[in-house]
Amino acid sequence: MNSLQATMPTPLESTTRSELWRGLRNAAPVMLGFIPFALVLGAQAAQKGLGVMAVPLMTGLNFGGGSEFAVIRIWTTPPQIWLIVAITLLVNCRHILMGAALAPYLQQLPRRKVLPALFFMCDESWAMALADARRHGTRHAAPCLSLPYYLGVSAGLYLAWVTFTTLGAALGPTIGNVETYGFDMAFTAVFLVLLKGMWRGARAARPWFVSLVVAALTYLALPGAWYVAAGAVAGLAAAIIEG
């Protein structure tokens, strides 16, 4: 074997690398969308007394924007630990349903790789990986999630989120309330873009509509984050009834 052959990448290495880059490229627009509301979260955390080192610890270990915004709103000194744990669990319980939707596309992948990778699952990486797996399934008999593609998406989103929430915590005391600039609207915009990518017609959207209505009514009727669980359960029930 000559030196050229020894340094040439194998097809498997090439595929893995190209899939990682494909995921990172596809995640780039969402990463840009993360920046405004990551800055908002970091600034809000700084206003509640969290230091620049505490913010990346929170966003890096939890990596769930919805629960982090909810926790920052109820943050007190000293913090009410059990209330924070309960709110985080309640808001993040939607990940159980998200994981169940992803499960059929993970059956051919080894658990020793899949389970650590799922730590980085968020709404955006889940939606992008699921849409990609469905497109892949139209070309192959056995639909399967591309783990390198998923990791490329997740790595980009994770690094962007942790980096810019930290930057928001550092700059927040200087620039004041960043919500006055309308940065928090980016959160809604990102979800609308993801919704457009997953749109499969009005009939398929009925469980989403049921979930939205139940969540809105629960939000008006009950305090706290119960609307998250109510919307998720109602959407699941509607999907089962629809068949």
Helical fraction equals over 70%
Shape assignment: globular
What does the radius of gyration come to?
20 Å
What fraction strand? under 5%
Question: How far is the N terminus from the C terminus?
Answer: 58 Å
Instruction: Report the uncertain regions.
Output: 1-7
Helix run count: 12
According to DSSP, the number of beta strands is: 0
What structural category do the secondary elements indicate? mainly alpha
Q: How would a textbook summarize the main sheet?
A: none
- What is the overall pLDDT average? 81
Query: Strand-and-helix sequence, N→C?
Result: HHHHHHHHHHHH
Task: Provide structural commentary.
The chain is built from twelve helices and no strands. It has helices spanning 3-7, 11-47, 54-62, 65-74, 81-92, 94-102, 111-117, 123-137, 147-175, 185-198, 206-221, 226-242. Helix 8 runs parallel beside helix 10 (185-198). The radius of gyration is 20 Å and the shape is globular.
